[in-house]
Description:
- The protein has helices at residues 3-33, 50-59, 61-65, 68-84, 97-110, 156-164, 172-187, 191-207, 210-219, 230-243, 245-251, 253-262, and strands at 87-89, 124-128, 132-134, 139-141, 143-146, 151-155.
- It has 272 residues and is an alpha/beta fold.
- The strands form 2 sheets. The chain has a 4-stranded mixed sheet. It has a two-stranded antiparallel ribbon with strand order 3-4.
- Helix 5 links the parallel strand 1 (87-89) and strand 2 (124-128).
- Helix 5 (97-110) packs across helix 7.
Amino acid sequence: MNVLQLFIISGLAIFLLVLALKIVVEPFYVLVFNKPLYVHWYPYSRKLTTNQQKILHDEFVFYRKLNASRKQYFEHRVATFIVKYPFYGKDGFVVTDQSKVLIAATFVMLTFGMRYYLIDVFNKIIVYPQSYFSTINQEYHKGEFNPRLKTLVFSWQDFQKGFSNTSDNLNLGLHEFSHALHFHGLKSRDQSSIVFADAYVKLKEYLKRPEVVKQLIASSYFRIYAFTNQIEFVAVVLEHFFETSSTFKQEFPELYNIVKSMINFNESDMHT
């Protein structure tokens, strides 16, 4: 057997092994453990510019809490997000490294436990300097996810407010990205979406229990807007999950674990 034949056979064997893992092993693993077989594996790692890396370090608390290896994965995902999704400034807003990095990092934080994080339910980011007038419903908006136009829209002023207070459970970026993730999670069939959808079923069952709803409302922990519908509830609880996780876990441990499972959040990624 010559070198070329050996190379071809080895390549074929590796391909069949990967295929078997994807088609046979991983679905079984997801069924048993309710999480993907793996999350982070990048043959080629994208890098942020020095300025972008400084913005991420100085202004994004979640990133600073990650352990060293996870910081590298986080940077890769932020850089990849910036390359994949174009940013457009409206009404005079100038898109800068700061706006790109902070918006991208918000989505990467939300999806850091998911292998398939480059979702296709949006394909562009539009940023206004402040709240903007929507001709669709004739109202001023701070942000929105428009699945028909595959667009995420943010008021930069309100986006920044979401990070000015990291314990008020109001974060525009997390809220709107949660809507996009929710939409993707219930329509797609990748392993991360299957995990999301399974946890969402558990969430709906949880909310059907009368004593649970009474407890949620009586606690006043979640703002009343959360109870508008299940879509808004998911977005609001994800804001709370990242902004006041300790309080969330203490007051509603069952719900916390459902949300943790939904996005496959790994607490061991963080410094202890």
